[in-house]
Amino acid sequence: MKGLSAIFSAFFLSFLLLSCSKSKDETTPPPYVVEGIYLGKIGSGIQTPTGHFSIKLKSGGLMDRINEVGSVTATGTWQLSGNTFTAHYESSSGVKVDLTGTLNSAQKRIQGNWSSTNGNSGTYNVTKE
Questions:
Q1: Which three-class secondary structure state does DSSP give residue 24?
Q2: What pLDDT does 30 receive?
Q3: What distance in Å separates the CA atoms of residue 63 and residue 57, rounded to the nearest whole number?
C-alpha cells in the first residue's frame, strides 16, 4: 500500500509541477493608430510626386490638409477599411479632392491616387511623423 501511495504522490507532484509551469508571455503589439500627421509628396498626372503634401488625420474620421507653414488649407473626412484608405476634402476655393490609397502600417505609410473636381489627378505618398 505504501508503494502505491508513493507512486500516486509522485504522479500527483509531477502533474502539479507541469501544470504550473510558466507559459510564454506572448504580447500582442498594440494596433496601429492611424490618427496623426502624415507628410510626403503629391504629383500631377503620371509624374513622380515632388510637391509638398501633408494631411492630419483626426479621430472621428475628420481630416485637414496642411500647407508648408502649418496652416489648414482644406478640411474633410477619411476612413480606413482593412488597409484601404479613402478621404475626401474641400479646399477654401471650393475644389473637392478624393484620395484613395493603401496603408502600410509597418512603414507608417499611405500611398495612392488623387483626383479633383477641377479635372486634375495624380499620385501621392505620405509617411506618419
A1: coil
A2: 86
A3: 5
Instruction: Please tell me the pTM assigned to this model.
Output: 0.77
Residue 14 — pLDDT band, cuts 50, 70, 90?
A: low
For residue 113, the surrounding DSSP H or E stretch is strand 109-116
> CA torsion 97→102→105→110, rounded to 10°?
-40
Q: What is the pLDDT of residue 28?
A: 83
Cα dihedral value 95, 101, 104, 110, nearest 10: -20
* Contacts (Cβ under 8 Å, ≥6 apart) of 33: none
Q: How many Å apart are CA 54 and CA 110, to the nearest integer?
A: 11
Burial of 77 (0-12, 13-18, 19+ CB in 10 A): middle
